[in-house]
From TrEMBL, chain A:
Function in brief: Required for the biogenesis of c-type cytochromes. Possible subunit of a heme lyase.
One Pfam short name: CcmF_C
Subcellular localization(s) per the UniProt record: Cell inner membrane
InterPro entries the record matches: CcmF_C, Cyt_c_assembly, Cyt_c_biogenesis, Cyt_c_biogenesis_CcmF
Main subcellular localisation: membrane
Source species of the chain: Mesobaculum littorinae
Protein name listed in UniProt: Heme lyase CcmF/NrfE family subunit
Family: Belongs to the CcmF/CycK/Ccl1/NrfE/CcsA family.
Entry membrane topology: Multi-pass membrane protein
The Cytochrome c-type biogenesis protein CcmF C-terminal domain, residue ranges: 315-638
Domain Cytochrome c assembly protein: 89-295
TM stretches of this protein: 6-29, 41-62, 96-113, 125-142, 175-195, 207-229, 249-265, 274-292, 312-331, 352-374, 394-413, 425-442, 448-470, 491-514, 616-635
Gene Ontology annotations of biological process type: cytochrome complex assembly
UniProtKB/TrEMBL annotation, chain B:
Name listed for the protein in its UniProt record: Cytochrome c-type biogenesis protein
Listed InterPro entries: C-type_cytochrome_biogenesis, CcmH/CycL/Ccl2/NrfF_N, CcmH/CycL/NrfF/Ccl2_sf
Annotated organism of origin: Mesobaculum littorinae
Domain CcmH/CycL/Ccl2/NrfF N-terminal: 28-168
GO CC field: plasma membrane
Family membership: Belongs to the CcmH/CycL/Ccl2/NrfF family.
Function: Possible subunit of a heme lyase.
Pfam families, A to Z: CcmH
Taxonomic path: Bacteria, Pseudomonadati, Pseudomonadota, Alphaproteobacteria, Rhodobacterales
Signal peptide: none
């Protein structure tokens, strides 16, 4: 019964979304206040209906209601509760329901907290948001209904893909979706502004927090996914340039560009049409990402939940929304005349350079991702584009970005002299070069990757420090500290996020360059000396988990006779899904991870054992979390908490026509 | 056919194994299995660490044909294991890295290359990034020049200057 009510709520949400997309738009065009006001309750109602539908589906998963085909295909009574809940979005239908739920959440948030927005703009934003909702609700109802019942309910389900039964991956999709869908707000604002024919500082001040929030969620989501790959796939890789990873990375790059260009619109009223274009593209890439993941058109390790016929539907949605928005853009962008002028050497120019690098980097990832498809369709060549290509073609852009970043963030607006602006950074530059040289001499004979990473990372972190130092003015340390504490949170956010970027960069370079790997056959009780550690395979034992069988090894790692860590790598088999997984045994450390994997039993006795020392591995994700923290700090800035237009509502409420 | 004969020459049982691999390929594609990566096993590794390191480097450039976006060094699939052994045989036989990669490409087609070659249409792929960057920088420069050349809109009109002077006098 509750399942049927959930289905009914989903249908109701579809109709509410239809109303929300049409009525406020007409109201805004005609100037009818009553019609415009429909958007707000409609957005709330849509959220309530979808919340109920989602809760109904969650209940079906939690109570293992095997009359639902979705539950049968993705759950099992023996599955731990966490994964019963995570199973709701661990499949195509449920994940799309989560997608629209988050979409409705953002729409409702815009309705509730959008009090300071001009009525007309708010009505249009809610209407565009509603239109996106209509499209995706239709997609769910017509191609991927999560509430399909079975004629005969089986006794038990087929279990969730074991790779997904992991805490890291349980929360990976919701964060990614919060990011993807958060960008729909930027899109709605962009389209509303194009219809309105007006983009100003207040508009940018509204778009920026949404973009920032989406970017923060994307950062966390991507970091979670990468962290999961690191410990789950069994050899400690953290990024594979898999099409599905790229699908989440492209919106991240574009939204990073967008949140920087929105600053220029907000502060200087320049780069307006470019910012609108980025806002459209950011959501466009989210849709492309959804398309790639959901259609399975590009083969990838993420094999679950794909179906080509659904891909066509999403492709049509993509064409309608992005194509429509770009057409509108082509028609109206000319009307957005920039006001602020700036010189070649200025912070504006630096932000333009940031945008160019991030956008081109995103484009490189995009073309690399779709090239196998293009080559097959257009040139009849079946080829692969893998990590070696991306490493070679993408990395230079990030290096360039890291080189100019501290410089750009310290430049004044409008007009600057390079010589004077660089002065606060000379110390940072000298120190980072010195540290790079030190790293270089310490590790002679190996690649230049790590020294370069060290130079760039130090440059970024110290550059961020210099940025903060300069902002505290002159004088004694006490006065500076007082002023630093009073700086706007946005300034702190910038500094923290930029430093986080440096830390991630260093983690990537150091781990890639310095990982030590050892693969060998070990008898139980045997000790091997690996990279200064004495590794003993103590014991290997068979065991049983709630819904899997396991082979669990106990390994003792010692250094100079002192025990450093005890690792328990596992090899699991999930009998219901008939799939094996590896669970690496990891000892996390600030300077290094010890990473052990147990392989197959060997014919001549003993076990295949892999042991890795991965220096600075955690810096990769720590940097990502620091970046996200910086974003959150910036988001909490008073400027955004105080509704942008509220204070000057009398003057800003109705745009001149 | 000469490729096939070569394989026979290299190793008697290789043909059969490659046939099995082809069979496995179709089977795996049909079932769409995705396995956790396990990579190189101790039995496959070469004793000479320098040669093994080179084999690793080469293996990272070669796709495991039955997997989804994994190199042969990362995959547990039987075909990947066969290719790892093949690469190690060639390396031991004294081939250079490029020769080994050519050898494998001749037999499996360019689909096996994770780093697509820069021939023909692939030039578009390789040049897209640099060309876009140069284009974007060029456009930006033109735009900035034009913007900078324009008079400052903030400059006050005569009326405004006069009014400002009045205000200042008060």
């Amino acid at each position: 019964m509750i399942v049927e009510l959930g289905h009914f709520a989903l249908i109701l949400a579809f109709f509410v979304a239809c109303v929300q997309s049409v009525v406020p738009m007409i109201g805004a065009a005609r100037g009818w206040r009553g019609w415009m006001a429909v958007g707000e309750p409609a957005a709330t109602a849509q959220l309530l209906f979808l919340g109920f539908a989602f809760a109904a589906l969650t209940r079906a998963f939690v109570t293992s209601d095997f009359s639902l085909s979705l539950v049968v295909e993705n759950s099992h009574t023996a599955k731990p509760m966490l994964y019963k809940i995570a199973g709701v979005w661990g499949n195509h239908e449920g994940s799309m329901l989560l997608w629209v739920l988050i979409l409705a959440l953002f729409g409702a948030a815009a309705a509730w907290f959008g009090g300071g927005l001009p009525d007309r703009l708010r009505a249009r934003v809610l209407s565009v948001q509603g239109a996106v909702g209509v499209a995706f609700l239709a997609f769910i109802l017509f191609t991927s209904n999560p509430f399909t019942r079975l004629e005969v309910a089986p006794f038990d389900g087929q279990d969730l893909n074991p790779l997904l039964q992991d805490p890291g991956l349980a929360f990976h999709p919701p964060f990614l979706y919060l990011g993807y869908v958060g960008l729909s707000m930027a899109f709605s604002f962009a389209v509303a502004a194009l219809i309105e024919g007006r983009v100003d500082a207040a508009w940018a001040r509204w778009v920026r927090p949404w973009t920032l929030a989406a970017w923060v969620f994307l950062t966390i989501g991507i970091a979670l996914g990468s962290w999961w790959a690191y410990y789950e796939l069994g050899w400690g890789g953290f990024w594979f340039w898999d099409p599905v990873e790229n699908a989440s990375f492209m919106p991240w790059l574009i939204s990073a560009a967008l949140l920087h260009s929105a600053i220029v619109v907000e502060k200087r009223e320049a780069l307006k049409s470019w910012t609108v274009l980025l806002a459209i593209l950011a959501f466009g890439f989210s849709l492309i990402g959804t398309f790639i993941v959901r259609s399975g058109v590009l083969t990838s390790v993420h094999a679950f939940a794909n179906d080509p016929s659904r891909g066509v539907f999403i492709l049509i949605l993509l064409a309608v929304f992005v194509g429509g928005a770009l057409t509108l853009y082509a028609l109206r962008a000319g009307a957005m005349e920039a006001k602020g002028v700036f010189a070649l050497v200025s912070r504006e120019s630096a932000l333009v350079a940031n945008n160019v690098l991030l956008s081109v980097a995103c484009f490189v990832v995009f073309i690399g991702t779709v090239w196998p498809l293009v080559a097959e369709l257009a040139f009849d060549r079946k080829l692969s584009v893998g990590p070696p290509f991306f490493d070679a073609a993408f990395t230079p852009f990030m290096v360039l970005l890291a080189v100019i970043l501290p410089l750009g963030s310290i430049l004044p607006w409008k007009r600057a002299t390079l010589g004077r602006a660089v002065r606060p950074l000379t110390g940072a530059l000298a120190l980072s070069l010195a540290l790079g040289a030190l790293v270089w001499t310490l590790q002679t004979g190996r690649s230049i990757l790590a020294p370069c990473g060290a130079v760039l990372a130090t440059w970024l972190v110290l550059g961020a420090g210099a940025d903060l130092w300069q902002r505290t003015g002159r004088g004694a340390l006490a006065g500076r500290a007082r002023r630093a504490a009073r700086l706007p949170r946005a300034d702190w956010g910038r500094v923290v996020a930029h430093a986080g970027f440096g830390i991630t960069l260093f983690g990537v370079a150091a781990m890639t360059a310095w990982t030590v790997e050892d693969i060998r056959v070990m008898q139980t009780g045997e000790t091997a000396r690996i990279a200064g550690y004495d590794v003993t395979l103590q014991d290997v034992r068979e065991g049983e988990g709630p819904n899997y069988l396991t082979t669990r090894a106990e390994m003792v790692v010692a250094r100079d006779g002192d025990e450093v860590a005890r690792l328990f790598p596992e090899k699991r088999v999930y009998p219901v899904a008939r799939m094996p997984t590896t669970e690496a045994g990891i000892d996390n450390g600030v300077l290094r991870d010890l990473y052990a994997v147990i392989g197959d039993a060997q014919q001549g006795g003993g076990w295949a054992v892999r042991f890795y020392v991965k220096p600075f591995a955690n810096w990769i994700w720590a940097g990502a979390i620091i970046m996200a923290l910086g974003g959150a700090l910036s988001l909490s800035d008073r400027r955004y908490r105080v509704a942008a237009g509220a204070r000057r509502a009398p003057t800003a409420s109705v745009p001149a026509e | 056919m000469s490729g096939l004969r070569n394989v026979v020459a290299v190793r008697g049982g290789a043909v059969l194994r490659h046939l099995c691999a082809a069979l496995y390929l179709t089977l795996a594609l049909m079932l769409g299995t995705a396995q956790p990566a396990g990579a190189v096993t101790p039995a496959e590794m070469l004793d000479d660490p320098a040669l093994e390191a080179r084999a690793r480097e080469i293996g990272g450039e070669l796709r495991c044909l039955v997997c989804r976006n994994e190199s042969i060094e990362e995959s547990d699939a039987d075909l990947a294991s066969d290719l790892r052994i093949l690469v190690r045989e060639r390396v031991t036989a004294g081939d250079s890295n490029a020769e080994v990669i050519d050898y494998v490409t001749d037999r499996y087609g360019e689909y096996v290359l994770l780093r697509p070659n820069a021939r023909g249409a692939n030039l578009i792929l390789w040049l897209a990034g640099p060309v876009m960057l140069l284009g974007a920088l060029g456009l930006t420069l033109v735009y900035l020049r034009r913007r900078a050349a324009r008079p400052e809109p903030e400059a006050l009109t005569e009326d405004e200057t006069a009014r400002l002077r009045d205000l200042m006098r008060d």
